[in-house]
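User: For my dataset I need records formatted as: sequence, then structure tokens, nothing else. Please produce one.
Assistant:
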Amino acid sequence: MKTRREVLQSLIVSIGGASVLNACGGIAQVVPSSSMRFYSEQELALVSRISDLIIPRTDTPGALDVKVPGFLDSLMTEWANPETKNNHHEELKELTRMLGEGFATLPPDASEQRLAEFDYEAFNGRPTSYSGYRSLKSLITQAYFASEDGALQEQKWVAVPGRWDPCVEIQ
């Protein structure tokens, strides 16, 4: 069961709160950087490969184009508590074991097929052994849609939808 804090953090990230909070004087420093501070080289390769397979570049930018791995690295470095950080590292180790050591370097067709099969297994009956993958997939999609390109180009987000009338009589 999630705590209230975990639910609120998930909600903030899923609606783009990281961008909003960062605009409020640097309260949250979730800025993707070129040097990773949380992920090891192997973890970064795995997260990058999975991100690219889940949200590939099409006519809109993909997960790598909006720097989802860098965002997640910053998120884990700046926001996550020690227990969450440790759990995330352990989940990535388990994911590496389940997908296979060389998954990140497989040819595109083979890795796409392997992840599609793995994704089906993870969501078919929702076995607990796949909770780390489901969590990572959720983080990837939330990070993507919290980005400017994900919100504006993919979701077609509009700050004020429709016409705005500042003074309307209520009848």
